[in-house]
């Protein structure tokens, strides 16, 4: 006599956690165990894990024809988190387990051969989806704290037997309380550590206030990396929605510790990183560094050393704030609203233009080095800053600058003005929102565009930076002072603005 079972779980498709029904059918015939519904290798291997886990948990493994269907059939299934619902489906279909209201629970978990539950990746998106669906979630105990951030009812179990005892109301599991993330405190390096570099510190403040991208160019040891590493300390903490989105993205790779739940992420991939590592992808699409830096900072040191095609792949995410990954079997979309901070030397040896050292490269070689970065990518970087190296004497005598918390207060105030006026940061403003500034300073801007050869994109990015400078100064209108400073950040070399 045939028996069936229907349980619920989740499959990961990018950042989306798709509902999956685990249908189990036991029928007569020669013993067999098949899993259908586009299972990948890890899911097919669950047959052996489930068989051993059931036997070692002292259940009977049915000597019948077992068919497990993971629906919808056209959605690829990957990973070991389907083990638990498959095992429980077999127990339910064979009459060894009685379930009350199985439609109210969702199950995730990889089984060890002895029946223990092992933690997996990507549980937070599944927990958020289960909470929206009004179902409780049962999963490995080591994943319970992370899943509880989703706001739903979460039960953590150590073994398959613990789950069975809970479902049969023998020994109930305790719901995992929702953890309260600590307040975002000052962490990481402080801006006060940077001595001198007045223009670099100012550019960091402007970038933080408006969400702008920044390119630092200067000789080795001038402090470019020091400046970039201190940008996160100037950013306000993430709100709850932003923090949950960031935590969900990181859940697919390595979950973020609760102690940094509200802190903007900072990612600094090496220049040897592959395209998949930077932008995401793979057979089972995973987020790359640009998505792991969502609502935070992506720092690319030694920018010209990155593969050029890799850098070109950043152009669309910088504009759209997301990346679409298309593969033959599936496609996925990951958010990628990050602040790009890049650093580079002016030439291969790094000392071009330094008055104290002779450069080992002629100007033509330096030009070729700088041309590794395309014009379209440079166009999308709002602030271009020359960082000069300080002599040891200048470094010793330079006074300590403001600490990060003092600068952050001005950044927070400027951002508050932007959200009150337009509901977004200046970096995300559409071009038509800057029409009044364009008309008011038309002649001045025409001279600037002609003098520097700016593109239309560069012009509008200049206006966005000027709008941020006005917000930092507490001005409602963008004046010539803000425009002149914004123009200085677009000039390849320092020069006076148009008269």
What does this structure look like?
This protein has 499 residues and is α/β, with parallel strands linked by helices. It folds into three domains: 3-167, Ribosomal Protein S5, domain 2; 191-425, P-loop containing nucleotide triphosphate hydrolases (Rossmann fold, 3-Layer(aba) Sandwich), CATH 3.40.50; 429-499. It is built from 21 helices and 18 strands. It has helices at residues 41-44, 46-56, 83-93, 123-133, 141-148, 160-167, 198-210, 224-229, 240-251, 275-279, 289-292, 308-312, 315-320, 363-370, 375-379, 392-397, 404-422, 435-440, 442-452, 456-473, 480-488; strands at residues 3-13, 16-27, 32-36, 65-71, 105-107, 110-111, 117-118, 136-140, 154-157, 214-217, 266-267, 280-281, 286-287, 297-300, 322-326, 331-335, 339-344, 383-386. Strands 11-14-17-10-18 form a five-stranded parallel sheet. A four-stranded mixed sheet has the order 1-2-4-3. The longest helix is centred in the C-terminal third of the chain and has 19 residues, at 404-422. The protein starts with a strand and ends in an 11-residue tail after the last helix. Mean pLDDT is 89; it is low at 492-499.
Question: What is the averaged pLDDT score?
Answer: 89
Would you tell me the structural class of the helices and strands? alpha/beta
Number of domains: 3
Report the CATH superfamily of the largest domain: P-loop containing nucleotide triphosphate hydrolases
> What spatial order of strands do you see in the largest sheet?
11-14-17-10-18
Radius of gyration: 28 Å
Q: Look up the CATH topology of the largest domain.
A: Rossmann fold
% residues in beta strands: 15-25%
The end-to-end distance, rounded to whole angstroms, is 92 Å
Please report the total strand number as a whole number. 18
Q: Do you know the CATH architecture of the largest domain?
A: 3-Layer(aba) Sandwich
């Amino acid at each position: 006599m045939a028996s069936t079972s229907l349980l619920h779980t989740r499959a990961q498709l990018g950042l989306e956690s798709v509902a999956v029904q685990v249908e189990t059918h036991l029928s007569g015939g020669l013993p067999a165990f098949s899993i259908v519904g586009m299972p990948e290798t890890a899911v097919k291997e669950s047959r052996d894990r489930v068989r051993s886990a059931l036997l070692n948990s002292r259940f009977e493994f049915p000597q019948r024809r077992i068919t497990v269907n993971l629906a919808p059939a056209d959605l690829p299934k990957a990973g070991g988190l389907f083990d638990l619902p498959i095992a429980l489906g077999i127990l339910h279909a064979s009459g060894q387990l009685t379930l009350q209201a199985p439609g109210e629970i969702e199950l995730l978990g990889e089984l060890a051969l002895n029946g223990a539950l092992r933690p997996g990746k990507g549980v937070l998106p599944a927990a958020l989806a289960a909470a929206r669906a009004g179902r409780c979630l049962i999963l490995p105990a080591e994943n319970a704290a992370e899943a509880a951030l989703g706001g739903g009812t979460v039960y953590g179990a150590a073994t398959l037997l613990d789950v069975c005892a809970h479902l049969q109301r023998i020994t109930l599991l305790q719901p995992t309380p929702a953890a309260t993330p600590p307040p975002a405190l000052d962490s990481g390096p402080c801006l006060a550590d940077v001595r001198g570099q007045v223009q670099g510190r100012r550019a960091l403040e402007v970038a933080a206030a408006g969400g702008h991208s920044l390119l630092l160019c200067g000789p080795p040891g001038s402090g470019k990396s020091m400046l970039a590493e201190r940008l996160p300390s100037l950013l306000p903490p993430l709100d709850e929605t932003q923090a949950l989105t960031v935590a969900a993205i990181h859940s697919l790779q390595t979950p973020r510790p609760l102690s940094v739940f509200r802190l903007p992420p900072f990612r600094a991939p090496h220049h040897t990183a592959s395209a998949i590592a930077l932008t995401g992808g793979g057979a089972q699409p995973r987020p790359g560094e640009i998505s792991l830096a969502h609502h935070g900072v992506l720092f690319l040191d030694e920018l010209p050393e990155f593969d050029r095609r890799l850098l070109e792949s950043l152009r669309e995410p910088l504009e759209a704030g997301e990346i679409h990954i298309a593969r033959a079997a599936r496609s996925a979309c990951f958010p990628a609203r990050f602040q790009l901070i890049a650093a580079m030397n002016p030439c291969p040896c790094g000392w071009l233009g330094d008055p104290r050292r002779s450069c080992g490269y002629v100007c033509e070689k330096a030009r070729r080095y700088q041309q590794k970065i395309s014009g379209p990518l440079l166009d999308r970087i709002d602030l271009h800053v020359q960082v000069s190296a300080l002599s040891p004497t200048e470094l010793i005598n330079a006074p300590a600058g403001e600490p990060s918390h003092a600068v952050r207060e001005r950044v927070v105030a400027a951002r508050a003005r932007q959200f009150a006026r337009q509901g977004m940061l200046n970096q995300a403003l559409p071009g038509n929102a800057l029409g009044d500034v364009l008309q008011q300073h038309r002649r001045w801007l025409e001279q600037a565009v002609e003098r520097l050869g700016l593109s239309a994109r560069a012009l509008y990015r200049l206006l966005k930076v000027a709008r941020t400078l006005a917000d930092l100064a507490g001005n409602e209108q963008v004046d010539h002072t803000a425009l002149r400073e914004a123009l200085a950040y677009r000039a390849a070399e320092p020069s006076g603005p148009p008269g």
